[in-house]
Specification:
The chain is of the alpha/beta class. The chain contains 13 helices and nine strands. β8 and β9 form a beta hairpin. α12 runs antiparallel to α13. The radius of gyration is 39 Å and the shape is flat.
């Protein structure tokens, strides 16, 4: 009896706002050998993730984030509750072809190089060889490992392993990307590139679930978050609403003269107590300052032997039908190799001009030659040769014959 194979899902054309992940009453209890409850990792969790959303799972270490991610992937079975991914159970095989996953630890074959690693994962998704090679090149360029494509991943630092791990998570052009601590071990430049990539995926309509305890990373990219502690969700909602302080107002303006500033303060203090008003100069965050310093240093120094700054998002992740943004077009123009100038047409050498003064002196010298150092070998023909030379010089100088 042949098994019934369910047709593969097609989440590539979902409607805007469609629920991609639905979790209701999710609970996971780990038990010991005797079946006794040992730890309740996730306790009655509810949330939904919609298409095109960057959704953050926040919480300290051991709060249940990674356990939730593994249940979404079907790697762990929930003790209680219900999970749907693309409208199916997490164990639905066909839907896994549309999911990309970066685990908390990079599980890679240490004796494969970068290109072989991506080729292996691309083969798991049954990608044709030509498409695998094309995507491998684009991904290695995107994560800044083009120069390390022939090095085995067992020699990589943790940050470089995270880069190649991120590339393998995107080899199948997934519609749902689950990233567990994606910036762990990365330098500030790598962290910024990962966050830019997440935002680019969301603009294309991809759904990203980001699990992290690094709040600065989540704040830059997430639309909505849930905050775990002890396996439970203690806060959730749009990040902008959670961080807003409705009882305070910030006013930003150019620096004013001392007298003008005093007038503004006097007006404000008519309605607000003086100790409630704070004045300071706005500052940029440390990440922006650091990246600016590195950018200036990169312009004046030579290349590095480590991981380089990645290129823009791989073309197949942006989508062929999607026109690159204006800044990408400008980047292409700036980075495009300048056309080589055409070789100038060869210029004919000018004909040498005859110096009449020197030629006249030479003619006089020939008419009255100095005595030769030795007698000529053919005296009979010498006068005739001398006469012919005089005639030629006279014609060049424009003298009439016989003068």
């Amino acid at each position: 009896m042949s098994a019934v194979v369910e047709p593969p899902v097609s989440p590539a054309e979902p409607k805007a706002g469609q629920v991609i992940v639905s979790v209701r009453g999710l609970t996971k209890i780990f038990k010991d050998f005797w079946g006794r409850p040992k730890a309740k990792a996730v306790d009655n969790v509810d949330f939904e993730v919609k298409r095109g959303e960057v959704f953050g799972l926040l919480g300290p270490n051991g709060s249940g984030k990674s356990t939730t991610v593994k249940m979404l992937l079907g790697l762990l079975y929930p003790t209680r509750g219900h999970i749907e991914v693309f409208g199916h159970s997490p164990r639905h095989v066909a839907s896994k072809a549309h999911i990309g996953y970066l685990p908390e630890e990079s599980y890679l074959y240490r004796f494969l190089d970068s290109h072989e690693t991506l080729d292996f994962f691309g083969n798991l998704f049954d990608l044709p060889p030509a498409k695998r090679n094309e995507r491998n090149d684009q991904l290695l360029e995107m994560v800044g490992l083009s120069q390390a494509r022939t090095r085995v991943v067992g020699e990589f630092s943790k940050g470089m392993q995270r880069r190649i791990g991120l590339a393998q998570a995107l080899i199948n052009d997934p519609d749902l990307v689950i990233l567990d601590e994606p910036t762990a071990g990365l330098d500030p430049i790598g962290c910024r590139e990962v966050k830019d990539l997440i935002l680019a995926l969301a603009r294309r309509g991809k759904t990203v679930i980001l699990s992290s305890h690094l709040l600065a990373d989540v704040e830059d990219v997430c639309d909505r978050v849930v905050i775990y502690y002890g396996g439970r969700i203690h806060a959730q909602g749009p990040l902008r609403e959670l961080l807003a302080k409705p009882d305070s107002v910030r006013i930003t303006m150019p620096a004013l003269e001392r007298e003008s500033m005093q007038k503004v303060l006097n007006l404000i203090r008519l309605d607000v107590a003086a100790d409630k008003v704070q004045i300071d100069n706005p500052t940029q965050n440390l990440e922006s300052y650091f990246l600016d310093v590195v950018r200036k240093a990169k312009e004046s120094l030579s290349e590095t032997s480590g991981a380089t700054s990645g290129s823009r998002v791989a073309a197949y992740l942006r989508g062929d039908a999607e026109a690159p943004p204006a800044q990408d077009k400008m980047l292409e123009r700036l980075t495009m190799a300048a056309p080589k100038p055409e070789a100038p047409a060869p210029v004919a050498a000018p004909e040498p001009k005859i110096d009449q003064t020197k030629l006249a002196a030479l003619a006089k010298h020939v008419e009255a030659p100095a005595a030769p150092p030795s007698p000529p070998t053919t005296p009979a023909t010498a006068p005739a040769d001398l006469s012919q030379a005089n005639d030629k010089l006279s014609s060049l100088l424009g003298k009439p014959d016989g003068k």
